[in-house]
Design a protein that fits this description.
single chain; 4pyrrole_Mease_sub2; transferase; methyltransferase; diphthine methyl ester synthase; 5-stranded mixed beta sheet; globular; alpha/beta; 4pyrrole_Mease_sub1
Length: 285
């Protein structure tokens, strides 16, 4: 059996009982190591699970499925994914490949940012399309995510913004020369995401405004290390958020749409300033 096992969002303890039983009996255990991270490393997982773990990077997952699933038709193989295996980053391609190879599979679900984002107080059924905000470069500054946020706002829906993760990335030069040299991991912060949104707002300031447009005073919510003991939630204007330090990764950002009074009360619990609380009063929303 090929098992896709969710690890949850915090540390080694967040695996489900079902998932832990699978890990302990599996012939091989892989840890998907490029779409998200836990607050602990591979060594902590190995100590808690009582067995060795093989790191599976992007190349192995996308190009070496034969190696991942070798003999999974006769033995159990566990593929561990931070969060839920089919959550923010889907692994349906692995399922399809398993089916092609006539290998039975099973998914063991767990918490992901897609449901745990409820911690900020905005109701899950009021969210629209989730967007990804990527690292900008001097030559590449995509704005498509901004337009999707505006579509959600126009419908009165909240937007969960997943922030970019760079794991085992190569520079263009090293990639072109075939050198296996990789950059250190990087994680887009809520402050950086807010800065990019502010730049887009500035770029579009000459365009016709609508009621759904964002402004520097628009309220947003940032969450950091959801599920960990040092989880942090802050409510601020985009302008304020751009200068806030929420500490280590992972961060996510939420742009609220139309809010119920209870949602406003919850956001007020995490407001960073009186200025933010002012904008959460009914007459300003």
């Amino acid at each position: 059996m090929f098992y896709l096992v969710g690890l949850g969002l915090g540390d080694a303890n967040d695996i489900t009982v079902k998932g832990l039983e699978i890990v302990k009996k599996a012939a091989r255990v892989y840890l998907e190591a490029y779409t998200s991270v836990l607050t602990v490393g591979k060594e902590a997982l190995e100590a808690y699970y009582g067995r060795g773990i093989i790191l599976a990077d992007r190349d192995m997952v996308e190009q070496s499925s034969d190696e991942l699933m070798a003999e999974a038709d006769v033995v159990d193989v566990a593929f561990l994914v931070v969060g839920d295996p089919l959550g923010a980053t889907t692994h349906t391609d692995l399922i399809l490949r398993a089916v092609e190879k006539n290998i039975p599979y099973r998914v063991v679900h767990n918490a992901s940012i897609m449901d745990a984002i409820g911690c900020c107080g905005l109701q899950l059924y009021n969210y629209g399309e989730t967007v990804s905000i990527v690292f900008w470069t001097e030559e590449w500054k995509p704005e498509s995510f901004y337009d999707k946020i505006l579509v959600n706002l126009d419908r009165g829906l909240h937007t969960l913004c997943l922030l970019d993760i760079k794991m085992k990335e190569q520079t263009i030069e090293n990639l072109m020369k075939g050198r296996p040299i990789y950059e250190p991991p990087r994680f887009l912060s809520a402050a950086q995401a807010a800065q990019q949104l502010l730049e887009i707002i500035e770029n579009r300031s000459v365009e016709k405004k609508t009621n759904s447009d964002l402004t520097p005073n628009s309220i947003c919510v940032a969450v950091a290390r959801v599920g960990a003991d040092n989880q942090k939630i802050v409510t601020a204007s985009l302008k304020e958020m751009a200068s806030l330090d929420l500490g280590p990764p992972l961060h996510s950002l939420v742009i609220p749409g139309h809010m119920h009074p209870l949602e406003k009360q919850m956001l007020n619990l995490f407001a960073v300033s009186d200025h933010t609380k002012t904008f959460l009063t009914p007459e300003n929303l």
